[in-house]
Structure formats: C-alpha cells, structure tokens
TrEMBL record:
Lipid bilayer topology: Multi-pass membrane protein
GO terms for MF: fucose:proton symporter activity
Record-annotated membrane-spanning stretches: 12-33, 57-77, 84-103, 109-126, 147-169, 201-221, 256-274, 294-316
Organism of provenance: termite gut metagenome
Subcellular localization(s) per the UniProt record: Cell inner membrane
GO CC term (a single one): plasma membrane
Coiled-coil intervals: none
Keywords on record: Cell membrane, Membrane, Transmembrane, Transmembrane helix
PANTHER family reported for this sequence: L-FUCOSE-PROTON SYMPORTER (PTHR43702)
Entries under SUPFAM superfamilies matching the protein: MFS general substrate transporter
Protein name per the record: L-fucose-proton symporter
InterPro entries: Lfuc_symporter_FucP, MFS, MFS_trans_sf, MFS_TsgA-like
One Pfam assignment: MFS_1
Length: 318
C-alpha cells in the first residue's frame, strides 16, 4: 500500500514532488508582491505629496493587471502548458519589478502604475497556472488538500513582503511628515523625493532579480506534463457550462466580495492606524511602523490558520 505522502504527489506512476516544491515557491513569490505593495499606498502618497485617494491608484493598477490577464492567461495555458504559463508569469513579474528603475528616473508617479500593472499581469499568469497545476499533481480525491497546502505558503511570502516593507522601506524613508513635506520648495521636494524613491525601489529590483533566477530554474527543470495532458478543455463552452452551476456562480460572487474586503483591510489598516496613533501624540513615521506591526500580527494569524485548516481537511468535507 502506498503511503499518504506518496499518493498525494504521485499520479500514474509519475512523481510530482519536485514540481510541487517549485510551483509552491511561486505561491510565496506572489504573496511577497501583494503585501510589500499594500503599504506603498501610504508611502507613495507621502513621497509625491498626494492624497491617499490618489495613492490608491496603486491598488487599481495592481489588481487591474489581475483582471486584465485572467482569461487571456487561461487561454494561453490551454494552448501551451502550465509550465509555459508559469514562465510567462515570471517573465512579466520580473519586467514589472525591474521597470521600477526607469520609473524612478522619471521622478513621476504614473510610470510606477504602469510597472505595477505589468507586474500583476505576471501574477495573474502565475496564479492561473499554479493553482490548476497543483490540483493535477496527484489523485483527484487529494486535490483540495494539495492546493490548500500549497496556498498555505502564500502568507509566508506575504509576511516577508510586510517585513521588508516595514524594515527596508518605511523605516528608511525621510522622517519628515506630510505637513513638513508640504512646506518644501521645488528643489528640496525633488531631492527628498528622489532619495525616498531610491529606498522604495530597491526591494523591487532585488525581487525582480530573484524572479529572473526562478524563471531560469523552471525553464531548465523538466516538469511532468501528466496532469495537464489528461483534461482537454474547450474554453468557451466550458465557461458557459460552469456558470450555469448555481454553487459556482455563488462562489464567484462570494470570492469577489471576500477579496475586495481583504484588500481594503490589508491596505487601509496602515492609514487607519497611523491616524489613530498620531492623534494620540505619536510621531507619524513611528505610527506607520507600529501600524505595519499590527498588520504583520494579523498576517501571522492568517498564516497559521491556513495550515490548521489544511490539516482539518483530512477529517472534514470541504
């Protein structure tokens, strides 16, 4: 009799263990991008002396990339392969992250929005490829457990993104608060802005180089194709058929509102916390960092809950 671990990651005599490890690492990589970016709404608002409303255009560009590429990514994957989808996603992710260099040179806010959009077009390809690929890496009866296990590593990347944002971006920005920045003349503002942008782009450039390395790893590693060869999908008829299923439609609606609420919580807890702590007499920069610490604590709870729920799926019917 096969042991449980072997049955979870083996199908038709093909082991998916190495592929599972590599693809699961991608879950952490897009978690990093998501949660290093949430605090940037506040950071960009301060750097460019904008309102928080203008700063939220980052999230519009960020999740606009997800929206724009979801269906094209699905069609691309069916035309080629999960591996091709992963490579396309990593390529766009790297290009978007490295575009922060020319965006910084312009000294303008809007090129960063383009960089974020391209980056998240890549994340859309990654998620659209990785999720079904994980599902296919073994018997169908263990697919939900396998996917939940892989997704449990997403918050770990998110935690790293939050940590980097707090310790390498927020902590190193110029300590002048919003009111003090408003009093700067044009030359002083440009000097402070350029210095802060140099701090802000550094983690994105580094993650861009990491993504290039991951791209090369996946390109050269042989990935099993067993899972993707067994289910040919005619995209449009399949889309029509699944939207005729009531539970599927309701699930899509629930997911829409859940993701919206989650994004707003992770994004605006920093703004809310900063205002609350500043009103209590705390300096603005310290208030931002403390707010991010609360954000990290919430993500730690989220991360542990994912692993606990994955374990419980052994005994509970999802």
């Amino acid at each position: 009799m096969k042991n449980t671990k072997q049955s979870i990651l083996t199908k038709d005599g093909i082991s998916f263990l190495l592929a599972f490890i590599i693809v699961t690492s991608c879950f952490a990589l897009w978690g990093f991008a998501n949660d290093i970016t949430n605090p940037m709404v506040k950071a960009f608002s301060k750097i460019f002396r904008m309102s928080v409303t203008d700063g939220t255009l980052i999230q519009v560009a960020f999740y606009g990339g997800y929206f724009a590429m979801a269906f094209p990514a699905a069609i691309f994957i069916r035309r080629f392969s999960y591996k091709s989808g992963l490579l396309m996603g990593l390529g766009l992710y790297a290009v978007g992250a490295l575009m922060f260099i020319p965006a910084k040179m312009t000294g303008n806010y809007y090129p960063f929005l383009i960089a974020y959009f391209i980056l998240t077009c890549g994340l859309s390809f990654l998620e659209t490829s990785a999720n079904p690929y994980i599902l296919s890496m073994g018997p169908e009866e263990s697919a939900t457990r396998r996917l939940n296990l892989a997704q449990s590593f997403n918050p770990m990347g998110s935690l790293l993104g939050m940590f980097v944002a707090m310790n390498f971006i927020q902590a190193n920005l110029n300590p002048m608060d919003t009111a003090e920045r408003a009093l700067l003349n044009d030359a002083e503002f440009a000097a402070v802005r350029d210095s802060d942008l140099s701090v802000l782009i550094a983690p994105y450039v580094i993650i861009g180089l990491v993504i290039v390395a991951m791209f090369l790893l996946i390109f050269f590693v042989r990935m099993p194709k067993n899972g993707e060869q067994s289910h040919a999908i005619n995209f449009i008829p399949t889309l029509k058929r699944i939207f005729c299923i009531k539970h599927y439609r309701e699930g899509v609606i629930a997911q829409f509102f859940y993701v919206g609420v989650q994004i707003m919580c992770w994004t605006f807890i920093i703004q809310y916390g900063t205002r609350t702590f500043v009103a209590g007499g705390m300096e603005e920069k310290a208030a931002e960092i403390l707010s991010q610490k609360y954000n990290i604590a919430a993500m730690i709870l989220f991360c542990f809950s994912r692993f606990i729920c994955t374990f419980l799926l052994r005994y509970l019917n999802p």
